[in-house]
Structure formats: C-alpha cells, structure tokens
Amino acid sequence: MRLWRSLRSLPQCGGVNICITRRKGGAGGGWRSRLIAAATNRGGRTISTWHQHNGQYQERISMSPSSFTHQELSTRSSQVASSSSMLQQGASINQNQQRQQQSANKAEAASSSTLHLDEGAARIEKALALVSDKLDLDSKRTKLDQLDGELEDDAVWSKDAVAAGAMAKEAAQLVNQINRVDRIWMEIKHLKEMAHLAKEEGEVEVVEECNDRMAALEKESDKLQIQTLLIQSPADEGDCFLEIQAGAGGRESGDWVEMLLRMYQKFAEKKGFVVDTVQETWGEGGGLRSVMIKISGWLAHGWCRSEAGVHRLVRISPFDSKGSRHTSFAQVRVYPVSSMNGSSAAETILSKDLKIDTYRSQGAGGQHVNTTDSAVRISHLPTGIVVTCQADRSQHRNKAVAMEVLKSKLQQLKEQEAQDEKATYREGLGKNEWGNQIRSYIINPYQMVKDHRTGVELGDVNRVLEQGELEPLIEAALAQKD
C-alpha cells in the first residue's frame, strides 16, 4: 500500500506545531525520532499525540520556539518531501511491473488455451477423415452433382415424376450425409482462425470461448464416428438375435447367464430397442443353460455384434456355503435378422433339407404350455444347424420364429464363407473356457470390468451388469475393429 508523509510548520501560541501524517508503525518513524531528539537537545518540550484522520494516523509534536530555527525546519521539511517523492516513484514502478506481469500472464494463458484448442481440432480432423473415408464422401459428392444436374432438367420430371421424386429423395439424403461432415470441418477452421487472432490481441476470454465450442464439436464428431463404425453392412441397421450359452459350472454358470441376460435387456431398453424372448433352456439344478432373445430397432445389430465371444465372471459364489471364489464362463453369439422375404426364403431353404420336431415346453408358462407340444425344433440337415423356439403358446408362431432364426443363421454362414472367415455359423470366439474370454467381470477380490480386446477398464461393475452401461466398452471395440 502506498505510504506518504508530509511535514508542515504551523504557528501556534508563539511556538511551532509539527504534524506528521503516516500509517502508525509505518515509514516516517526515523524522521519523527530525529525531530524529537533535536528539540530535546535545544531545550524544547515535546507533546506527542496520536489520532485517526481519514483512515490514517496523524501525530502532532508541539515544541517551544527555541527548539528550531526556520532554516532547520525548512531543511527537515525538504528532506521529508524528498523521501515522500522517492516512495511515490517506487510505487509507480511497482504498478508498471504489475501491469507487465498481468499482460505476460494473459499471453501465457492465451497460448496454453490455443494449444489445447489445436490439439482438440487435430483429434476432430482425424475422426472426420475416418468418417469421410468410411462413407466414401468423394463418391457421394460426385453422385450428388450428377443428380442435381439431372433434376434441373424439366424433362426428367415430366417424363416420370415418380422416378424424379426418388432421385430428389436420394439427393436429399446425400446432402444430409455430406453436410454433417462439412459443417464440422468449416466450424473447426473458423474457430482456429478466431482463436489465433484473439491470442495475438491477448483476449483470453475469446480464446476460452473458442476452446469450449471446440470441445462440444469433439463430442459431436465422436458420436458421428461411432455411428459410422456401427454400420459395417446393411444388416447392422436392422434387428438381431442374441444368444447366451452357459459354460461348465452348473448352477453358478446358469446364474451367470441370467446376469448377462439382464445386462443386455437393460442396455437394449436404454437404446429404445424392443426385446423378445425366443428360446430358453433351464438346467436341472436351476439357472439358465441357454437363452436367445430378439432385439429389434434401428442399429440393433450394429450395437450388439461386437459382444460376440466368451464372457468371464469372478466372484464369491452365493451358492457356495464355504464362501469360495468361483470363475464362470458364458458364450454370447449374435446373428443379424435375415432380410429374406417369403418367396426367396422358400427358394433358399428346401423342405427336404429340414427336420421339424415338436415337444413340450420347459419352464414357466402355464398349464397349456407344459401340457401341449407347442415347442418347435428345426434342424437344417445340410449344415447341421439346429434352432428351437418355445416362447409362445402357439406351435405355429413358434415355428415361424424358429424359421426366422434359421434364416438368419444361414445368411450369416453364407456371408462368412464369402469373406473366407471361419467355416462355422457361430460368431462367438473360441471355446467357452479360460483363455478365450473377450471380457472379464471381476466382483471379488476387487471390482473391475476389463475388455481384453481393447484394454478398456471400468471400475463400477454394478453400472455395467445392473444398468447396462456398455457404451464405453462397445465403442472402443468398434473403433478397434475398424
């Protein structure tokens, strides 16, 4: 804080009053001591009093006329004034230094924010390049230019309005796909230019605003990238069947199947998918040995296909009276719902290649389900694929669903053979045992979910198993597969 002092000579009763204004205990104490000492040596008498005035302390020292000559008082006053001037100059220098330091701090903050913005822009540009390549946007731009040229011709509309309308719809879809990417590209460029100009001007607030907007764009580009990765084939946009089969382990592994079933049901509900039970088989000692569900909704297969494989559970078994730790395995298989319609299906699947058996359903379902041959088992003799369905009371509806599952498995087998993949219809990876798991769910001695394909680890097991929080695991797996 600024300290200032003044010395004034005031005539009073033939003597001299000296008033020193300063902060109590601050600078100026040295001159006060000298004045009093000089007055005392000359036989003067001093009376020192303190009082507060305008937030500062003033000390009045009264001395007799013989204490000082006018020349001495003038000299003392000049010395005090010179000292006050030096203090003011020092305060001014300190203020300049503070302003320079503040400017340097702002420049450093702007530089740091700009660097962070550039790093975010680089990540977004990488994601957009992947999306552009996956969607083949260059070809789409060429196709859009071609459609626009044709639609500008009035003869196209007059010749076949329906065909022209279909072309216009295709053009609109292309524009939507292209603009989703181009808009982000343009905004990134604009934000980078604005941030660097603001950095040169030292406008930290503007740089930070650009940084916030860049962070929002990064989230948007991540979602666009994931959605692009979800669609690897037309089947990824449709429905799928998800099958869970227990490994060795009796009641413990059967309970693990039920836990996985609840997890996938929660996940599907969060995505707005519809879940229907197709088939389930219960073990003699309790617990599900296998279950198949149908998940219906846009991108259902795209979201679920990376879940195929062996899933491992480590926990203290609730069925072990000794409280021992157990490891259980279950295999998940995923099949896209076949897009074949009735006529093509009839040509593809011949009746002589099928063996159809009926039997009584197992598990809950009421008296009618357990006392009639409503369950259906269909065997495809050329491939050895066997499917069953017992979800409905009606044998005809169960047969229709079983045929739908069979078509899906045959279609998947055909696609895998065409791609020189495994000569098996199963999409699950490896045997249902240790060493083949794609993911581990550890409840004891610590809690963790780890995907062994990507290395992604999550600490909250309950959020995954009980709430179906699978997005981080699936998104990482999809990105890696790409």
UniProtKB/TrEMBL annotation:
Matching entries from InterPro entries are given as: PCRF, Pep_chain_release_fac_I, Pep_chain_release_fac_I_sf, PrfB
Composition bias of kind Low complexity appears in: 74-105
Q: Which SUPFAM superfamilies match?
A: Release factor
Protein biosynthesis as a keyword? yes
Give the signal sequence positions: none
Q: Which residues form the Prokaryotic-type class I peptide chain release factors domain?
A: 360-376
Q: Which domain of life is it from?
A: Eukaryota
Name the protein family: Belongs to the prokaryotic/mitochondrial release factor family.
Q: PANTHER family in the record, alphabetically?
A: CLASS I PEPTIDE CHAIN RELEASE FACTOR (PTHR43116:SF3), PEPTIDE CHAIN RELEASE FACTOR 2 (PTHR43116)
Q: What is this protein called?
A: Mitochondrial peptide chain release factor 2
